[in-house]
């Protein structure tokens, strides 16, 4: 294959791991740190928002967000993310990865700050403003998915490409962890300076007016890591694969990568022209040729990501409700508003520390050893098993003396989500499609995932309510209960396992070999040259 490969691309494929690889991981990874922080920090403060803005005088329970408001606050950023993945994924193939990369980051910084400054003359006005800014925050976050994955895959060598892309995505775990830790720090600080009684002791005094600053500080903090990496994102050169295979500028690709790798690389303009004008490398996304070559691949990457996110986001966004249901977080009326934020933050931090973060880094360590396919199959399998183990004896887990066991089992589902399909569904779409469609196809796959996240977030909010309407949260209809919701997730995970068989294994292959961008040339070459190239 090296004989057919452009020299600049072959140099990238065989390059030893060096400083620029780690620089790219940090620059792209900090974007994902911010993405995860912004998406998951909202789950820490939604209970507080209910107490602050929807308190009902004389009610036996603290105020909660009405169902439609809760669904909007939790889900609007996911809707924006879906739109951003499609738009910026397409734009990354049209304008270049680097040019679009800075736009997404500035949108994330501006909207993180604006979310914390949400205003309004009424409670619904504040929530509407918050939802507006969180939609556009999600739009910027959406662009980071296809661009970060594509840039890292096109910079990496083929031996450790999976680990590099997975390392970028693994920063998501630290973002989730950071949201929990900051929630603990901020709420502990406010609790110390503004002590308050529980709601059942004094409904009004239990929510001090200074608590309004807590959710604003937590949401605004997401702007900081994104702003710190903007300069370095703008310093990164465009990827050689985009410059050579899409922009068709062999000289610029050779110059950029020669500077990065500290070697002299020949600019093969004639070879670039031959490659890019080959009919095998000119078909579009909606062509029959694309469907023949990559249709099942796109179906596989999109469907598995969708099913994974149904399970992942329904657990992550609403884990506070599960913790409350098993008694790990006390009843809301027995706590003050700030105490509730502290307890929810502590629970999220524990799950991130024990299940989420380790799972990501197990994937980084092993993805280029055992392969993407094996990790994804294994992850879906164990998620199915542990969901069954949670759902079947659910009443056992709700007993106070068994709550630690529940947390352990629940943490294992997160571990195998992250040492499994949550990482691999991000990695594979950045490897198996042609350069001119790579960002677009990754954006489509990621958008399918966010559609699943929306189903998980909105659907689980209603489905997990108690079957007895009198015991459901205020404003919600009766649901199917947490136990039956877990059974739905069991079926979701098992279907994801089956659809994984549509996705090829990219381990150890060059991007051009995977995408078939050299395929037609190989068929036309004389037999002797094929043998030499293979040797």
TrEMBL record:
Membrane topology: Multi-pass membrane protein
Signal peptide interval: none
Ranges of residues in domain Major facilitator superfamily (MFS) profile: 24-508
Organism from which the protein derives: Acorus gramineus (Dwarf sweet flag)
Gene3D superfamilies recorded: MFS general substrate transporter like domains
Gene Ontology CC annotation, any one: membrane
Protein name in the entry: H(+)/Pi cotransporter
Record-stated family: Belongs to the major facilitator superfamily. Phosphate:H(+) symporter (TC 2.A.1.9) family.
GO biological process assignments: phosphate ion transport
Principal cellular location given in the protein's record: membrane
Keyword terms of this UniProt record: Membrane, Phosphate transport, Symport, Transmembrane, Transmembrane helix, Transport
Location(s) in or outside the cell: Membrane
Transmembrane regions listed in the UniProt entry: 20-49, 69-88, 100-119, 163-190, 213-232, 350-367, 373-392, 404-423, 443-463, 484-503
Source organism superkingdom: Eukaryota
A matching Pfam family: Sugar_tr
Listed GO MF terms: phosphate transmembrane transporter activity; symporter activity
InterPro entries: MFS_dom (IPR020846), MFS_sugar_transport-like (IPR005828), MFS_trans_sf (IPR036259), Phos_permease (IPR004738)
CDD domains assigned: MFS_PhT (cd17364)
């Amino acid at each position: 294959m090296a004989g057919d490969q452009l020299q600049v691309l072959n140099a990238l494929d065989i390059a030893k791991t060096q400083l620029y690889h780690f620089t790219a991981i940090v620059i792209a990874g900090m974007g994902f740190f911010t993405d995860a922080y912004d998406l998951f920090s909202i789950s820490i403060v939604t209970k507080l928002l209910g107490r602050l803005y929807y308190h009902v005088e004389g009610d036996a329970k603290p105020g909660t967000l009405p169902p439609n408001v809760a669904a909007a606050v939790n889900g609007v950023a996911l809707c924006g993310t879906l739109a951003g993945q499609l738009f910026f994924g397409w734009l990354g193939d049209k304008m270049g990865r680097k040019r679009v990369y800075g736009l997404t980051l500035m949108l994330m910084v501006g909207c993180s700050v604006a979310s914390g400054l949400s205003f309004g003359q009424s409670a619904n006005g504040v929530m509407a403003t918050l939802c507006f800014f969180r939609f556009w925050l999600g739009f910027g976050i959406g662009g980071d998915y296809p661009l970060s994955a594509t840039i890292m895959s096109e910079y990496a060598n083929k031996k450790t490409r999976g680990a590099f892309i997975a390392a970028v995505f693994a920063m998501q775990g630290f973002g989730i962890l950071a949201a929990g830790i900051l929630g603990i720090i901020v709420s502990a600080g406010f609790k110390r300076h503004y002590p308050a009684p529980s709601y059942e002791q004094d409904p009004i005094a239990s929510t001090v007016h200074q608590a309004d600053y807590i959710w604003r500080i937590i949401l605004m903090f997401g702007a900081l890591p994104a702003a710190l990496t903007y300069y370095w994102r703008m310093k990164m050169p465009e990827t050689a694969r985009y410059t050579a295979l899409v922009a068709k500028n062999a000289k610029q690709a050779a110059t950029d990568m020669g500077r990065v790798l500290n070697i002299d690389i020949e600019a093969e303009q004639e070879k670039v022209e031959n490659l890019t004008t080959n009919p095998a490398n000119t078909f579009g996304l909606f062509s029959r040729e694309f469907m023949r070559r990559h249709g099942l691949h796109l179906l596989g990457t999109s469907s598995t990501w969708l099913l994974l996110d149904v399970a992942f986001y329904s657990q992550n966004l609403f884990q506070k409700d599960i913790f409350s249901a098993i008694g790990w977080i006390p009843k809301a009326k027995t706590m003050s508003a700030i105490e509730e934020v502290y307890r929810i933050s502590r629970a999220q931090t524990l799950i991130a520390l024990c299940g989420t973060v380790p799972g990501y880094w197990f994937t980084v360590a092993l993805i280029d050893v055992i392969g993407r396919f094996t990790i994804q199959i294994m992850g879906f399998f164990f998620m199915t098993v542990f969901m069954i183990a949670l759902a079947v004896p659910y009443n056992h887990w709700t007993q106070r003396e068994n709550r630690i066991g529940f947390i352990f089992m629940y943490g294992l589902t997160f571990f195998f989500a992250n040492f499994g399909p949550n990482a691999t569904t991000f990695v594979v779409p950045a490897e198996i499609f042609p350069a001119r469609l790579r960002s677009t196809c990754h954006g489509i796959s990621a958008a399918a995932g966010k559609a699943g996240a929306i189903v998980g977030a909105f659907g689980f909010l209603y489905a997990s309510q108690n079957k007895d309407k009198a015991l459901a949260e205020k404003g919600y209809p009766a649901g199917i209960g947490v136990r039956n919701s877990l059974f739905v997730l069991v079926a979701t995970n098992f279907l994801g396992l089956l659809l994984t068989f549509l996705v090829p294994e990219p381990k150890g292959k060059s991007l051009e070999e995977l995408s078939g961008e050299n395929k037609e040339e190989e068929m036309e070459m004389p037999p002797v040259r094929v043998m030499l190239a293979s040797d």
